[in-house]
Every structure is written in C-alpha cells, then in structure tokens.
Design brief:
Blueprint lengths: L6 H55 L6 H19 L11 E6 L5 E2 L9 E6 L2 E2 L8 E2 L5 E2 L4 E2 L2 E5 L3
Antiparallel strand pairs: 1-2, 1-3, 3-8, 4-7, 5-6
Helix pairs in contact: 1-2
Keywords: Membrane, Transmembrane, Transmembrane helix
Organism: Ricinus communis
InterPro entries: TadE-like_dom
Length: 162
C-alpha cells in the first residue's frame, strides 16, 4: 500500500509555496517602507525650511528701520540659509532661494527702504526642489525606478515691530 500524501512530502511542498509568498510580500514591504522614508524626509525638509523662514522673519521684524533694506534683509537671508544647512537640508539654499519682502498694512508687497518701517515682513523660500526617490528609489508597477521633484515654497509673515 502506497501513501501518496506522505507528511514529509506535503511539508516540502508547503515550504516552497511559503518561500514564494514571502518573496513577493518582502518586495512589496520594502517598496512601502522606502516610500515612507522618502516622504518622511520631504516632510522633515519642509518643516526645517518653515522654521528657517520663521527665524528669519523674526530677525527682520525686530531690525531697526534705519537698516532694514541695507543690512537686515541680507542678514535674514543668511540666517535662513544657515538654519536650513544646520538642519541637514540638501541641496543647500542660496540667496536666490530666500526672498525677503516688506508688506504694507494690506499685505501687499512694497520696497524695503532704509528709514521706512513696513507694516509687515515676509520671508519666503522659493524654487526649492527636493527629489523624492533620491535616497531610496521608488519603483513603478512596471519595475522601472523613478524620481519625483516637488517644489517646496514655505513662507512666514510677521508684523514689523520697530
């Protein structure tokens, strides 16, 4: 009498199926974890850039009106660049990425002029692109990897306190 359903034979067959299932699930989990890490990094960068604009806006909102255009605007840009660099944001910000605006009471942009106090000040980060898929490549359903480059544009507006 032959036993077709021998326990050792069934066990080996199940192990092979489990290994294939594990391989498929691991690939999917690695892709999900990679996406979580990449999107988390983008949120970290956005938060760091927002904090940099807030610190710079605070600096210029307390600057004397006699030097608001000549010195304070440049100092605010440098502070934003330094804060973003210290937070580990890459690529590095430049002065072209940091815009300092003086605003009137209706929050419309006006020229910063030494000796004239604006009603409000705004510091903005402009044209800063971060690459999603830069650390961990994101895979598409067809198996190709891709990068996505959204633009982050945080800004902070504060009342000028002469």
């Amino acid at each position: 009498m032959r036993h077709l359903n021998h326990p050792a034979k069934i066990s080996r067959l199940h192990r092979g199926g489990a290994l294939i299932e594990f391989g498929l699930v691991v690939i999917l989990l690695v892709m999900i974890v990679g996406a979580i890490v990449e999107f988390g990094r983008v949120f970290w960068y956005y938060d760091a850039l927002t904090k940099a604009t807030r610190d710079s806006a605070r600096l210029i909102s307390l600057a004397p009106k006699e030097t608001i255009a000549s010195t304070a605007s440049g100092d605010a840009q440098d502070l934003a660049i330094l804060a973003a660099t210290n937070a580990g944001v890459t690529p590095r910000l430049t002065r072209a990425n940091v815009v300092v605006d003086c605003l009137n009471a209706a929050f419309q942009i006006e020229n910063c002029v030494d000796g004239t106090a604006p009603a409000n000040v705004r510091v903005s980060i402009v044209d800063f692109q971060v690459t999603i898929g830069g650390w961990i490549p994101l895979l598409l359903s067809n198996g190709a990897s891709t990068n996505w480059q959204p633009t982050l544009d945080p800004h902070t507006t504060m009342r000028y306190l002469p």
